[in-house]
Fold Reticulon-like protein.
Amino acid sequence: MTSSDRLLFNRQATVHHLLGAGLFADVILWRDKNVTITILIITLASWMMFEKSDYTLLSYVSNVLLLLLTILFLWAKSAQILNRPTPPIPHLQLSEETVSEVATIIRDRTNMLLSVSYDIALGKDPKMFLKVAAYLVLISVIGSLTDFRTLCYT
């Protein structure tokens, strides 16, 4: 293939470049076959586990956390009995600055979303209205092809 054969719709950039030319583009275009196959296998395994076994994500996460908590508890108790070191668990704590930064980011994004929604509702931004309408139709079509649980797991 020549370089002009790899261009999409007579553009100056390749499809790989249009998709960002990174790992995402490599996976989508099957350039990194190992990563792509790994993602497909993990997706298939999750679908099999959740859809076919009627397992839910909440029950799965709950069981994994219960198993982890039980292992850590037994490890700590046995360490006390045998005079061994306890499990190396870091002391996690959110700082006031981190919480303030996250709250500020969420507030700014929400205000931006509300501002754009306001402009669309008043008819000030017809291009954005068409984009939002197209995405909502796309979501509706994809949603009608599958159930919500399968869509979320995928």
About this structure: The mean pLDDT is 82. DSSP finds seven helices and no strands in the chain. The two ends are 34 Å apart (CA to CA). The first helix runs from residue 15 to 18.
